[in-house]
Amino acid sequence: MRVLVVGAGVAGPTLAYWLMRTGHEPTLVERAPRLRDGGYVVDFWGAGFDVAERMGIVPRLREEGYRFREAREVSKSGRRIAHFDPVHVIEGAAAGRYVTVGRSDLARTIYEAMDGAVETIFDDTVESLTDDGDRVLVRFVSGAEREFDLVVGADGLHSRVRDLAFGPEREYERYLGITVAAFDLDGYRPRDELVAVMHTEVGAQTLRLALRDGATMFCCMFRHDGDVPVDDLPAQKELLRERLSDVGWELPGILTQLSQARTFYMDRASQILLPSWSRGRIALIGDAAACPSLLAGQGSALAMAEAYVLACALHDSGGDHRAAFSAYHARLATLVRTKQDAAVGLGAAFAPRNRFQLLLRDAVFGAMGLPFVAHLAMGRSFRDPVELPRVPTG
């Protein structure tokens, strides 16, 4: 079948790869002019790790990734108040099936695994979709029109495909009360190699990571009840300055350098709750279908698992998209909803609401160096209770 996959992040190229492997003709379209850079790093494990293994890209991800030797919480003055060794604690809990990698590096590795065999259109996206039951007529923003057997939206939290096929985002979004900003600066000092340095106060947290290219990545999470400016970079930076201006540690110096950031991302931490991930000949995967939010810590891995399961379902159903879409949802819906519900209670770990939550969060963080505490807090989350289908062949 001819399948249009909208979005060249993590989910889209994964689906295109497996569709190509099983004899379909995927076309990938991405509204950005090129693969996106920057963003935050992701801790990658679970079912998504299994999919990456089946694609043969785990060695590359380990090369691109980071093995942080310390996760460190610091006070306003920069004094270390709690720490643990994530290699020992997290990799041990995950039995080595774990890697920390830049989200854009993960997306690029998946895209390059297609080895140029999938038609890719950059700097364009869908304008309208007309599903007549036998095909989907797609009009692109560029004015081009084409027909496809199926369309799959892999275009993120603010999915255009979902808006067109399912309705406005506000009908399905669950905002978790936290806004996230991620950006990198060249030449920032101080620089702590392979150390994840965090400073947390009531209502906000900032994470600093030294990247191997000489840059430093920052991830700021803060409680925010208002709107987040969309596609307005100056307004987003101004919101970050306003919200974090009275936060201590290195924030005053960091905020003065925002204008020099080489990449910048800001969005609200939200989830998408849909009763179904398909409608007619149109389906959704990744954050477009069921965004768990950054707080869940597993969005990229879940996106890869969803893409793989959908491709397998299309293969096993002999091209019957109704049966395939139903099987895809049935296999993953419970797992995804469990991850979403768990993330709702994790906001206090990133942006505590009050002093009590802050003290409790710091105590748990400090105890993570004890193996039994780490296993109790994280061990179960590294084992996704889902059986992936066998690897499909063409």
What would your notes on this structure say?
With 394 residues, the chain is of the alpha/beta class. The chain has a domain at 2-66 and 101-172 and 271-354: FAD/NAD(P)-binding domain, CATH 3.50.50.60. The protein contains 14 helices and 18 strands. The protein has helices spanning 11-21, 46-55, 58-64, 86-93, 103-113, 160-166, 233-244, 251-256, 287-290, 299-316, 321-344, 347-350, 355-367, 371-378, and strands at 2-6, 25-30, 41-45, 70-74, 80-84, 98-102, 119-122, 126-131, 136-140, 145-148, 150-153, 173-186, 195-201, 204-210, 215-223, 263-272, 278-279, 282-284. The strands form four sheets. A seven-stranded mixed sheet has the order 5-4-13-14-15-12-16, sandwiched between helices. It has a six-stranded mixed sheet with strand order 7-2-1-11-18-17, sandwiched between helices. The longest helix has 24 residues, at 321-344.
